Amino acid sequence: MIGVIIPVHNEVSVLEACLGHVLRAASDPLLGGEQVRVFVALDACSDGSDRVARAWGADTVTCNERNVGAARACAAHLAMDAGVRWLASTDADSLVPEHWLSAQLACRAEVVCGTVRVTDWAMRSGYVHARHDRHYQSRNGHRHVHGANLGVTAHAYRRAGGFAADSCGEDVSLVCRLQQLHACIAWVAHPCVITSARHSRRCPGGFSSHLDQLEWSLPV
Description:
220 residues, 8 helices
């Protein structure tokens, strides 16, 4: 069984689209009918995200951490207890492609680190898009780590101690520990996940903070 884990904090405006894409990936014929379950950690939600998650058939766990690392760990714990063999992680503001899960498994690695792509830059200053594209490596062999596009075997996840309860960087921390354990890691350009360019005040840390830094720097 494959488990998809999603941390959620008041994401009612985007969660339905996220789950729709995840369920499409879950029905990919290339998975050979293997069961896929979605595990959503509802972290201090007060906007109806819980109703959306349950309406789309997700298994849910409630926490009050206001911490993406802790929430992602809660979702992973629920999935591990259910007996999954593979954990695929994404975010509520992200849209996974149709072959997301089958492409991760096709890498035949213990860990798959994928790329992300922004298609709507409207909420950012004009030069942020160009600056991001100048430095981002959309190729195999990149060294980007995104919680929005990450896969790991249950065995490797357990061996590395799982996601840390960090307010940001829990995905990078996990991959660093897996590197230290000499896990087999695939750094692949595809499958690529579409994500948002929202500001970190909405969701502190990670990719959004990276874009903030690009925006706060003087344009070149």
